[in-house]
Each structure stands twice: as structure tokens, then as C-alpha cells.
Automatic annotation (TrEMBL), chain A:
Gene behind the chain: atpC
Protein task: Component of the A-type ATP synthase that produces ATP from ADP in the presence of a proton gradient across the membrane.
One Pfam family it belongs to: vATP-synt_AC39
Superkingdom classification of source: Archaea
Keyword annotations of the record: ATP synthesis, Cell membrane, Hydrogen ion transport, Ion transport, Membrane, Transport
Stored Gene3D superfamilies: ATP synthase (C/AC39) subunit, domain 3, V-type ATP synthase subunit C domain
Subunit structure: Has multiple subunits with at least A(3), B(3), C, D, E, F, H, I and proteolipid K(x).
Name used for this protein in its record: A-type ATP synthase subunit C
Family matches, as SUPFAM superfamilies: V-type ATP synthase subunit C (SSF103486)
UniProtKB/TrEMBL annotation, chain B:
InterPro entries linked: ATPase_proteolipid_c-like_dom, F/V-ATP_Csub_sf
Annotated protein name in UniProt: ATPase
Transmembrane segments: 56-80
SUPFAM superfamilies: F1F0 ATP synthase subunit C
Domain V-ATPase proteolipid subunit C-like span(s) in chain numbering: 17-76
Transmembrane is among the record's keywords: yes
Topology versus the membrane: Multi-pass membrane protein
Length: 347, 84
């Protein structure tokens, strides 16, 4: 049953400080035209450029142990975690609660990274480099997990938490079922925790998150429909809670052309129509959809300037920035052409 | 000596209360308006110290409303009334 959410007097003021702050932080993000220029640079030049931006501290700190693409990767992740932690530190009350609820995705990311690392036998130092301790689980706890020998021990460490049930789905062979269960758990928990608050801010967060789920499901559909996977398997992989869940469930298993025709008329169609018409790759479509999501978050925050949405917009923009830098640097290292990297960059 | 209550006395009293309310309510209104602006300005200045000048200017905008209230008070007290 839909719940009527009435604005409370004085409520938006709680958000004034944090939204003012993130809007100032937004101006320090790397401008889009810079990605174009980065494509023409080599890795040391990119590192030097990043040293002039907010990544300076991390790059200076890590430069003695790492170099090249590795240095940029670790520095950007460390900066991402620092930035998200800072958002939590400078907010109180409802904003803090909602930001933490959203940032739990990094807990999921960290658990997945550790599981994957253990699965492929990576060393604990190697795993630690890819962790982003931006959520509730702190670095110490994660370090303890990374040091454990076997996946079963990692799963045991979560006994008594919400994650345990999802993690016990691990059958010793495939990680994808656990990863899928963790994703579902994240959105289920958010719906339960945030939906229960009945606050305006929580409603806005859920509105954005529903859109995010839709976009994720859409990417899954593009991938799986293109590969011609049967409907039941695809439906199992779709995340619940999106606004278009029913429509997407129906589209699962359709032939690629039929599926694409069915997408016309949806709000995201304008963002991907030209790529789809050219028969572009799924990763290009994914980059376009990601850009659409970032635009959506900021556009929505114009309607609710004193709410959680500008903060969300910043969180999403920052994540996109880090992934763009990593894509460019990794692409350069692998010797990919500038055009190929450009297609993957979200702008 | 017994103080005498006259119609004029009540009128003056009410005018004085009105003058007080004009400035007082304007001040409360400006305060409510400023709380959000002040918080937002502090947030921005924490990131960009150079914004302090502009921020202070924005913060003082609702303050102009108090001047209207004060002007009404002064008119009531000294220009329009027998107090003058």
C-alpha cells in the first residue's frame, strides 16, 4: 500500500549543511572534457595530472610502493573510501542514516572481493588492495576476513548477521549464486530499513534506488537476451524492487530484436537509442545507461534541492569518476586503442 | 496618586505592542530563513574557504526583512503616533 509522505516543518534544514558541502565537493570532480585529454596522455602523465587533483594525498602516499596503472588504481580506491567516509562523518541524523544505508553496497563489494580473492587463491595483501572500506564493515574486520584461509571460514565469520543466509548459498563451485543473493539482500535490506522510516528523504532515496535497480536489470537483460539465455534463468537473475520489474520479467528470453523494439518509449530510450541502432556492444550501452543514471540523480535533486538526492548524485558521480579513471588507465596499460577506451568511459 | 486609564493610554500601549511585534516577528522570520542558508554556507566554506564572502552576503539577504519590520516599528513609534 502506498504511504503518504508529508513534508515536516524544519526537515529540509537537516540537509542544508551536507547538500551545501557536496555541491562544493562536486565542483572538484574531474570535468568531462578532461577524460578526452587523458585518453591522449600516457600513464605517468595521467598520474601527474591526478596529483594536481584531490587524489594527490593518496598518490603521494602510495607512490613509494607502487607505480604505473597499479598506483592509480589503488590511489583512486583509497580516495573513494576516504571521500565516502567523510560524507558519513560530516552528516548526522537522517542524512547519515540514509547515506550509510546506500553505502552498504561497498560492504557487499568488499565481501564479494574477498570471496572472489579466496576462490582464485589470491594473497591477503592482494585482496586488501581492492577493498573499499566505505560501508559499515571496517578495515580491521575486513583484514581479518582476508587473512582467513578458506571461503567457509569467511562465511562463518558472518554468522548471526543478515549476510549469513546469503553466504551459505555457496556450494563450493560457483560464486555467482552467492553474488546474486548478496545483491538481492542489499536492496531488500534497504527497502526494509528505509521504507520503514516514512520520511520524505527515505522516499526520495528509494525512488532513485528503484531507478538504479531498473538500469541494472536492463543491463542484465541486454547481456542475457543477446546471449540467448532462456527466460527462467534471466528472471532469476533480475533484482526485485525496480519500478519496471514486471515489464522486464516479460521481456526476459525475447529475441534481441524484439526486446530492443519493446524498449522504445521508455524514459531511458533516448540515452541508448543511437548505440542500439548501430548495434553497439553491451558495455557501450551500459556506459550510456550509467551516464543516464548520473544525470537522473542530479536532475531529480533539482526538484528536491534540500534532500538526500544531491548527496546521492555526488556519491554516484564520484564512483563514476573513479571507474572512468581506472578504465582509462587499465585500457592504456593493456594497449587498447583510444576509441575503444572512449566507448567505455561514462560521460 | 491613582493612575488613570484613558482611551489614549490604551491606544499608545497597543501601538507599542504592535511596534514590538513588527520587529520581533520579522526577526523570527529572518532567523527561520537564515538557518538553512547558514548551515549550507558553512558546508560550502568547509570545502571552499574562498566562498566565505559570497556566502555571508547570501546569508544576510533574509536580514533585510528585519529592516522592513524595524521601519514599521519606527514609523509606529515616532512618525505616525502621538509618541512623536
Amino acid at each position: 500500500m502506498p504511504v503518504l509522505r508529508l513534508p515536516k516543518f524544519g526537515q529540509p534544514v537537516k540537509y542544508a549543511y551536507i547538500t551545501g558541502r557536496v555541491r562544493a565537493m562536486k565542483t572538484k570532480l574531474i570535468p568531462h572534457e578532461m577524460y578526452q585529454r587523458m585518453l591522449g596522455m600516457d600513464i605517468p602523465e595521467i598520474t601527474r595530472y591526478l596529483e594536481e587533483t584531490q587524489y594527490k594525498e593518496e598518490i603521494d602516499l602510495m607512490a613509494k610502493d607502487h607505480s604505473g596503472a597499479e598506483l592509480v588504481e589503488y590511489a583512486t580506491f583509497a580516495n573513494l573510501a576516504k571521500t565516502y567516509k567523510k560524507l558519513l562523518r560530516v552528516s548526522i541524523d537522517e542524512p547519515e542514516f540514509l547515506i550509510l544505508e546506500y553505502l552498504r553496497r561497498w560492504d557487499i563489494w568488499n565481501i564479494k572481493t574477498i570471496l572472489r580473492g579466496k576462490f582464485y587463491g589470491a594473497s591477503d595483501e592482494e585482496i586488501m588492495k581492492y577493498l573499499v572500506p566505505a560501508g559499515e564493515l571496517d578495515l580491521e574486520f575486513l583484514e581479518g576476513l582476508a587473512k582467513k584461509e578458506r571461503i567457509e571460514e569467511v562465511v562463518q565469520a558472518f554468522d548471526g548477521t543478515d549476510y549469513y543466509e546469503a553466504l551459505t548459498q555457496y556450494d563450493g563451485e560457483m560464486l555467482s549464486s552467492v553474488e546474486n543473493a548478496l545483491d538481492k539482500l542489499y536492496y531488500f535490506r534497504m527497502e526494509r530499513a528505509v521504507g520503514g522510516t516514512l520520511s520524505v528523504g527515505g522516499g526520495l532515496l528509494l525512488k532513485y534506488v528503484r531507478k538504479e535497480i531498473d538500469v541494472k536489470n536492463l543491463v542484465t537483460l541486454f547481456r542475457m537476451n543477446k546471449a540467448g539465455i532462456e527466460a527462467a534463468v534471466i528472471q532469476d537473475n533480475l533484482l526485485a524492487g525496480g519500478k519496471l520489474h514486471e515489464e522486464f520479467s516479460r521481456m526476459a528470453g525475447q529475441s534481441y530484436n524484439e526486446f530492443v523494439r519493446g524498449l522504445e518509449g521508455y524514459p531511458f530510450w533516448g540515452a541508448i537509442s543511437d548505440v542500439v541502432a548501430e548495434g553497439g556492444s553491451v558495455s557501450r550501452i551500459e556506459a550510456r545507461l550509467r551516464a543516464y543514471l548520473v544525470r537522473y540523480a542530479w536532475a531529480l535533486s533539482n526538484y528536491h534541492p534540500l534532500s538526500i538526492l544531491p548527496v546521492l548524485g555526488y556519491i554516484v558521480s564520484k564512483e563514476t569518476e573513479v571507474s572512468n579513471i581506472r578504465k582509462i588507465v587499465r585500457g592504456k596499460e593493456a594497449g587498447l586503442s583510444a576509441e575503444l577506451i572512449e566507448e567505455q568511459v561514462v560521460a | 496618586m491613582v493612575a488613570e486609564i484613558t482611551d489614549g493610554g490604551i491606544l499608545y500601549g497597543l501601538i507599542a505592542v504592535g511596534a514590538g511585534l513588527a520587529t520581533g516577528l520579522a526577526g523570527i522570520g529572518a532567523g527561520v530563513g537564515e538557518q538553512g542558508i547558514g548551515a549550507a554556507v558553512v558546508g560550502v566554506v568547509a570545502e571552499e574557504p574562498g566562498f566565505l564572502g559570497k556566502g555571508l552576503f547570501l546569508m544576510l539577504l533574509p536580514e533585510t526583512l528585519i529592516i522592513f519590520g524595524l521601519a514599521v516599528s519606527l514609523i509606529l513609534m515616532f512618525a505616525w503616533t502621538p509618541f512623536a
